[in-house]
Amino acid sequence: MQEFIEVIRGTVEIVETALEVTNVIQEVHNFLQETVLGGKTPPDQQLIFDPMTSELVVQRKNERPSNPDAVVADNIAKEGFFGETSFVYMHEDQISTIYQRWKVSQINQVPAVAFGFDEGEVFHVYTSQPKAHFAGIPVTSIIQFLPQFGNNDEVLNVVNEIVNTRLYQHGKPSYNVIVLFTIEEDKLQHRVFIKQPDGSLNEGIVKFIPERSELYSRSQGLLETSLLEDSKVGIVGLGSGGSSVAIELAKAGIGNFVLIDFDRVELGNVARHTCGTGDLGRYKTKAVRDLLYGKNPYLQVETAEIDINTNLEQTKLLLKDCDLIIAATDNNRSRFNLNSIALEYEITTIFGRALTRACGGDILRVRPFAGPCLACVFTKDFLESRQEEVSQFRQAREDNPAYVPDNEVKATVQVGLSSDILPISNMIVKLALVELSRGKDSGIKSLEEDLIADFYIWANRRDNTYESWPKMEYGSKTPSVLRWYGAKWERNLSCAVCGERQDTINGDDSFFG
Ligand SMILES: [Zn+2]
Predict the structure, then answer these.
(1) How many whole angstroms from 9 Cα to the centroid of ligand 1?
(2) Is 294 helix (H, G, I), strand (E, B) or coil?
(3) What is the mean pLDDT of the chain?
(4) Distance between CA atoms of residues 263 and 282, nearest Å
(5) What separation in Å is there between the alpha carbon of 333 and the centre of ligand 1?
(6) What's this model's pTM, rounded to 2 decimal places?
(7) Class of domain 87-209
(8) How far is the CA of 375 from the centre of ligand 1 (A)?
(9) Buried-state track 174-191, b at ≥16 Cβ within 10 A, e below 16
(10) How far apart are CA 273 and CA 275, in angstroms?
(11) CA of 382 relative to ligand 1 center, distance in Å
(12) How far away, in angstroms, is 355 Cα from ligand 1 center?
């Protein structure tokens, strides 16, 4: 019954809203009729567009719009509503910093840089160096704090004075962004003007990029982002697999990262990698870090451009307080080193790799001493039966003896498609999220019961390792491509790497027994 009443209430609200909207539409319609047919705007009225509600309302000219972001839509007939309107994005935390400075020291003019996109449609204004990867045309911007705005003419005088004194251009004409702030009724009010290349001024709409607390509010409920915000994940190897795992974990709300890789973004990687040609030559660690900041500027990201095989002690220091390690490197030596670190610090570590030409892949989750370690699984026989993808010259060179010439080594590099790597990355992400939210009341809790296996295999195509598999067709009871298989893999109690610990535990047991 209660539910029924709720439904009725909801329906009544919808009908009421619809009636309100109909009235507004009628009012706007009348206004447009007068403007277009009569050829001029009614002298005491104007059309206001509220970007928050996406509503058009007719208002008297001296009336203050309820939303300070609302703009006068006065070019409707000519250009459409946004014909000459620009959107100007600013980071709330940066504005808050300069506002505090203005309050204390009355520094009322702040130089800024704006990046312009799409012929002046969108600008991003920064008062300090952007952490995220950025693009666009850099243009000079000025932020001005005023004691009050005054009337429209007074505001335009201020803007014109800034244009004439501060933004005088020696070179070719370009855009400039002038942002005005004041405090009215205890609230920060803002207006933004864009000086066009031809010297004219247009008013734009300010949009704020919120501070930390609001950034992830949308995904709350699916994942307890406040829980994951404190989690720290170490990712070793930032090729196409590791980098896409990093991005997904940042999107899921993980707050702290350690990124380790010594490779740089090269032309040959770009097609498969999350980074693009704009990152060529950069360390993958730093380029990926900037992509992560683009998802969440409040992340803590530590990077290390080291080969873990020759810097083991430094690697340990970097990883020892991580909640989880992702091992996405492309060689077994580094995997065994990470396995040792996992066992030494008892950190759950997920190993992922692609097989020859990415025909498929496998994932091993190492929960130290609670399941198999890498050495329990990656035996000589196993490695021969499931050979990995060789996607880089460096990796191929390491795999071959020194007497094999470079051109022959090069011929062994056979890369798979990015779309063949992504399913493996995606499963790594799921396993990582399950591990990080284990025992917590998260939206993916039921997956804990599904993902009980420590070893998973995936086939992209019936090639190489999977050549003998039956076709998928309509079957669901035979092994097939494009499905995950969790395999039961017991811990090897005489494992050369993790077996010893079993003795210790036994010893303790008998001691207490
Ligand atoms: Zn083991």
Answers:
(1) 61
(2) helix
(3) 84
(4) 9
(5) 15
(6) 0.77
(7) alpha beta
(8) 5
(9) bbbbbbbbbeeeeeeebb
(10) 5
(11) 14
(12) 22
